[in-house]
């Protein structure tokens, strides 16, 4: 990786190993880098520990989505999904277990896969793709069982509501759709940009992130980051953040959001922005909390640079891992 | 009769008995009585009494039945004895020292309260010089016995007592050389070991933490930490304490670089990690305060790595660290007499310190509660520190003001200038305007009209100067084309007209010629002028010729006393000499007509004995005063008025 490539690198996705000791990061060159968190967090960490223990090319295009199950790492980028075994990767064995491609109608252009999530109810993989559809892959049989159609533009992000067994998806068309996973029908469709409180017409109507906490939903993108009550399908709080947020998550009693702007925003549920913690990258694409391990319980964020910031204490950046 | 021998043992026994009586009787009379009874000289008796009192104290202590009050009453007795003059002044202090050495600490407390109360007695003249060293030694012994962290209040009381007892400039109480406590080393984990803090303590501290609440109290196993720890920050943060401990290190280049790097990182963390407003967590603080007694005070930093996060979120802790920075910067920048000459900051360091000071104050202001007030207070305190620093540099002079000696010589009062001097009638003939510049300007020429009429303000050119070019161009031999002639220039034409109206008679002569344009008119004028002016003659002659021709125009401009009119000529020196000779002793009568003041006359008289000289002086004074008005005309008038018509006539004829 020459310096020019490093300069133009963007990290799109992050995922932790099931043991919590490793972090996988996917970038726009199609590479996945594996970092050892335990080495980086140990007292005798050196600058070498902040470099990846393993880097390999997984896909031809950028890797927009990485997700871990309890023994696999799934990566998706330009239309195909690859699965890797964590144990093999830790042993530096880079052979994918399998590679699948959803059934796209058009064979001329291969749509990219923007987002994936595991639906634990029926052990399926929900894939939000660029052909405006959501594909469901059955993990046990390895077959695509259904397609959810309804969006009129590509799907940015997907999320699952475990208790009700519903899938939420946000797309470029500005709609957040709620699907019933069994029937495959769109139960609700919320057009966020139509709500005056949230709408920001200067940015557009696209929804780039949707995350849910069963009763609550966070969505953001063109419209402002807003907290929705799902039962009543109405926005409860709107957060006055400048820029478009690309990923948001609930954490204890706060909301963490990243997007345009070199900081992680901490917001309170009431709608107040509590803090903006500065980061290395000029804008951030993804943030992940390591819930798999208590010892290495850190927050990592990645964005438009080759650095991945690690926060041991949410309020300041401890150090950065880099490709 | 020889003085009877002083029997020490006998005397001492008697003193001991009477002391005991005095104690029971609570009065020092028995003692005084005994003192005067015993034969011997003062000194012997005094020293014996000292010994006796000490003996009594010793007995009391031995018996172990005595309470503090008993000791105290004995000491009171000794003080009374000193006041009476029967005991040497050091005795009470010796007794105190003995008591404090022999008693356990809780009783020492009570005795010390007594000492504190009596501070005014100790400071009084009879006791102070004798006792201050004893008191100092006694207090230091006590301090050595006490533990700073456990008997903090008692230590504080002793220090305060010493502060009240001794004046500010007491050298033993000052850190004259500004030395640092180099023993104050902060210990922290440099590698992964057992943490410096037990697990139990960790669980008790439940302050306003955001992240780690889940983790605390979870892990009972001693070895691995249950939370991710930022060792990088931990190490750098606590290394800074070494620089605060020994600031002189900062002057060394390499140490400075490390300090810089670590400080920048730490302050960046403080900056990004903003603290909550304490309102929300006030409830929690109250609970904490009730459960844990010593909440805010600590003598030394706790440096376990697990506490790092908690400490970072604590406002008081941050204030401590930021204040350390400010104190360090003040030392580095300050002038301290005892700093060696190698301890100087270069420009980069100074700049960095300036910037970081601003950042530190900003961070201080952001720490709730009352960040602004705290920051202003800190700034104020550091400012007063400068004064103390200066005081130390001067060798700690005493603050007692000495009465100033009244031996300043009386300054001679300045003679004020007489008013005439201002108005130009004084000996200098200058008009003082009160301001140097104005005086200078005014004395160039007092009369504005006169000044305007002076030659240097003559701006109008003469005809030949102005028209020289035009005349030359008009000459056909030069073959200048019409359009290039200067008379065609409207600006030139306008000025030419003005000049002609002022200087040339041709302007006013009626003419039947009809001129199509200004240029034509000027052409004709130029030709007329050319005829008048003799050609090829140097300009000075032309000028004089001009003057003869152009009488009309001149008189408007030129001063009348330039033209050769005798009447307006200034009086010359020769003329004045003549007049003076003729006047002789009668010059005084002329003086009144010349408007000379009596003061001036007196001056003239005093200046010279010779009447001729006086007359001359009169005329000179008159001339100085009049300046340009010192004309023959005026003098003649005055002479005639005074009745010296002959002199006047001779002057006019000359």
UniProtKB/TrEMBL annotation, chain A:
The gene is thoc6. WD repeats lie at residues 148-189. This is THO complex subunit 6 homolog isoform X1. Signal peptide: none annotated. SMART domains: WD40. SUPFAM superfamilies: WD40 repeat-like. Belongs to the WD repeat THOC6 family. Pfam families: WD40. One of its GO terms (biological process) is mRNA export from nucleus. One of its GO terms (cellular component) is transcription export complex. Keywords: Repeat, WD repeat. PROSITE patterns: WD_REPEATS_1, WD_REPEATS_2, WD_REPEATS_REGION. It comes from the Eukaryota. It comes from Betta splendens (Siamese fighting fish). InterPro entries: THOC6, WD40/YVTN_repeat-like_dom_sf, WD40_repeat_CS, WD40_repeat_dom_sf, WD40_rpt.
From TrEMBL, chain B:
One of its GO terms (biological process) is signal transduction. Residues 402-426, 537-567 are annotated as: Disordered. Coiled coil: none annotated. Residues 417-426 have a biased composition (Basic and acidic residues). Residues 572-654 form the Death domain. Signal peptide: none annotated. It comes from the Eukaryota. Gene3D superfamilies: Death Domain, Fas. SUPFAM superfamilies: DEATH domain. PROSITE patterns: DEATH_DOMAIN. GO terms for cellular component: THO complex part of transcription export complex. Pfam families: Death, efThoc1. PANTHER family: THO COMPLEX SUBUNIT 1. This is THO complex subunit 1. It comes from Betta splendens (Siamese fighting fish). The gene is thoc1.
């Amino acid at each position: 990786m020459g310096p020019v490539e490093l300069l133009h690198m963007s990290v799109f996705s992050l995922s932790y190993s099931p043991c919590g000791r490793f972090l996988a990061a996917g970038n726009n060159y199609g590479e996945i880098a594996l970092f050892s968190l335990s080495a980086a967090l140990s007292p005798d960490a050196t600058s070498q520990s902040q470099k990846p223990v393993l880097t390999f090319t997984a896909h031809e295009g950028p890797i927009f989505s990485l997700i871990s199950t309890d023994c696999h790492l799934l990566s998706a980028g330009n239309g195909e999904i690859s699965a890797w075994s964590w144990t093999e990767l830790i042993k530096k064995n880079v052979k994918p277990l399998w590679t699948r491609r959803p059934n796209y109608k058009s064979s001329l252009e291969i749509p990219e896969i923007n987002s994936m999530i595991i639906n634990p109810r029926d052990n399926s993989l929900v894939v939000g793709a660029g052909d405006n559809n959501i594909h469901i892959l059955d993990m046990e049989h390895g077959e695509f069982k259904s397609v959810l159609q309804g969006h009129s533009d590509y799907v940015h992000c997907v999320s699952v509501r475990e208790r009700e067994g519903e899938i939420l998806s946000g797309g470029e068309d500005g709609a957040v759709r709620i699907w019933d996973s069994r029937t495959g029908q769109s139960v609700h469709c919320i057009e966020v940009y139509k709500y005056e409180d949230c709408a920001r017409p200067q940015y557009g109507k696209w929804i780039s992130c949707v995350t849910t906490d069963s009763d609550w939903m966070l969505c953001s993108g063109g419209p402002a980051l807003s907290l929705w009550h799902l039962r009543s399908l109405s926005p409860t709080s709107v957060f006055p953040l400048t820029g478009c947020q690309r990923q948001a998550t609930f954490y204890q009693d706060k909301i963490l959001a990243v997007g345009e702007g070199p900081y992680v925003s901490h917001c309170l549920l009431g709608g107040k922005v509590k803090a903006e913690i500065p980061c290395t990258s000029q804008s951030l694409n993804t943030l992940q909390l390591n819930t798999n391990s208590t010892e290495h319980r850190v927050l990592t964020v990645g964005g438009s640079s080759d650095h991945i910031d690690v926060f041991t204490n949410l309020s300041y950046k401890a150090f950065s891992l880099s490709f | 009769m020889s003085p009877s021998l002083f029997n020490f043992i006998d005397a001492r026994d008697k003193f001991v008995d009477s002391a005991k009586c005095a104690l029971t009787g609570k009065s020092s009379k028995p003692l005084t009585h005994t003192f005067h009874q015993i034969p011997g000289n003062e000194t012997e008796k005094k020293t014996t009494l000292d010994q006796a009192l000490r003996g009594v104290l010793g007995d009391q202590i031995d018996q172990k039945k005595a309470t503090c009050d008993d000791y105290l009453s004995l000491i009171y007795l000794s003080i009374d004895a000193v006041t009476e003059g029967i005991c040497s002044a050091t005795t009470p202090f010796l007794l105190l020292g003995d008591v404090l050495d022999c008693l356990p600490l809780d009783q020492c407390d009570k005795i010390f309260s007594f000492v504190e109360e009596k501070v005014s007695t100790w400071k009084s003249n009879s006791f102070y010089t004798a006792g201050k060293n004893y008191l100092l030694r006694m207090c230091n012994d006590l301090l050595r016995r006490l533990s700073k962290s456990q008997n903090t209040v008692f230590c504080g009381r002793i220090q305060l007592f010493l502060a009240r007892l001794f004046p500010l400039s007491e050298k033993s109480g000052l850190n004259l050389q500004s030395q640092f406590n180099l023993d104050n080393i902060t210990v922290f984990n440099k590698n992964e070991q057992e943490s410096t803090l037990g697990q139990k303590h960790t669980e008790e501290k439940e302050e306003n933490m955001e992240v780690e609440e889940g983790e605390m109290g979870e892990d009972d196993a001693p070895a691995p930490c249950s939370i991710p720890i930022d060792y990088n920050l931990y190490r750098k943060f606590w290394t800074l304490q070494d620089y605060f401990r020994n600031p002189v290190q900062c002057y060394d280049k390499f140490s400075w670089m490390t300090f810089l790097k670590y400080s920048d990182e730490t302050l960046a963390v403080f900056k990004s990690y903003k603290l909550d407003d304490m309102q929300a967590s006030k409830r929690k603080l109250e609970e904490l305060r009730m459960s844990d007694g010593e909440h805010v005070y600590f003598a030394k930093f706790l440096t376990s790595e697990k506490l790092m996060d908690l400490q970072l979120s604590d406002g008081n802790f941050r204030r401590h660290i930021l204040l350390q920075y400010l104190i360090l910067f003040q030392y580095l920048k300050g002038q301290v007499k005892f700093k060696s000459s190698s301890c100087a900051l270069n420009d980069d360091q100074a700049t960095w310190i300036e910037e970081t000071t601003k950042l530190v104050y900003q961070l201080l202001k952001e720490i709730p509660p009352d960040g602004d007030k705290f920051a202003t207070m800190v700034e104020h305190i550091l400012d007063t520190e400068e004064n103390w620093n200066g005081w130390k540099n001067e060798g700690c002079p005493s603050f007692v003001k000495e009465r100033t000696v009244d031996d300043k010589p009386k300054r001679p009062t300045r003679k004020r200038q007489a008013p005439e001097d201002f108005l130009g009638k004084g000996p200098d003939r200058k008009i003082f305007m009160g301001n140097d510049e104005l005086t200078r300007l005014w004395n160039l020429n007092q009369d504005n009209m006169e000044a305007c009429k002076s030659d240097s303000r003559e701006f109008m050119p003469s005809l030949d100067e102005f028209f020289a070019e035009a005349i030359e161009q008009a000459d056909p031999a030069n073959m200048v084309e019409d359009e290039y002639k200067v008379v065609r220039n409207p600006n030139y034409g306008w000025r030419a007209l003005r000049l002609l109206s002022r200087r040339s008679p041709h302007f006013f002569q009626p003419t039947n010629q009809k001129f199509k344009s200004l240029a034509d008119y000027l052409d004709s004028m130029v030709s007329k002028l050319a005829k008048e002016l003799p050609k090829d003659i140097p300009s000075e002659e032309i000028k004089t010729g001009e003057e003869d021709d152009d009488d009309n125009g001149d008189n408007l401009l030129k001063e009348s006393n330039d033209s050769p009119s005798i009447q307006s000529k200034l009086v010359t020196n020769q003329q004045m000499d003549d007049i003076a000779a003729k006047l002789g002793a009668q010059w005084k009568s002329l003086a009144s007509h010349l408007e000379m003041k009596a003061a001036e006359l007196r001056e003239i008289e005093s200046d010279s004995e010779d009447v001729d000289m006086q007359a001359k002086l009169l005329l000179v004074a008159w001339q100085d005063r009049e300046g340009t008005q010192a004309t023959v005309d005026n003098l003649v008038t005055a002479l005639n008025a005074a009745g010296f018509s002959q002199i006047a006539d001779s002057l006019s004829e000359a």
